Every structure is written in C-alpha cells, then in structure tokens.
User: Fold this.
Amino acid sequence: MITSKITSKAQTTIPQPVRAALHLAEGDHLEYRIEGGSVILFKHEAEKPVDNPFATFEEWNSEADRRAYGKL
Assistant:
C-alpha cells in the first residue's frame, strides 16, 4: 500500500510510484472520481482544441454568427 500525508493546507505529495504509473509530469492535471467511500485518481487527458474560429472572438460567438458565417 502506498500512502501520503496531508499538510495543514490540505496539500499532499503524490508518491513517486503513483506518478510513474500515471506518467505524470510537472504541469499535468489530475481528475478525481468519487465512488462510494473511495476516490479514484486519473491523469487528466486534455481535450484537443476544436477548430472553431468563433471561440477566439467572444463577441462573434453567437448563434446568429454561426448561422451567418458557419459554412465559410
């Protein structure tokens, strides 16, 4: 069994065997899934960005803009 301690600031170090098993590196994000009385830890796999030109310009991100310019 692998354990770690929680600090007074509710922080913990992820033990090296866990980091290795999840292939974690600096800057990676984690997911926590609560199931009953247990928590399952996952490496968060970033979603690939969608090629959406409207997402860049919030002021052009309306349904009317998508209808008018969506097929360009």
Summary: The chain is about 25% helix and 15% strand. The first strand starts at residue 30 and ends at 35.
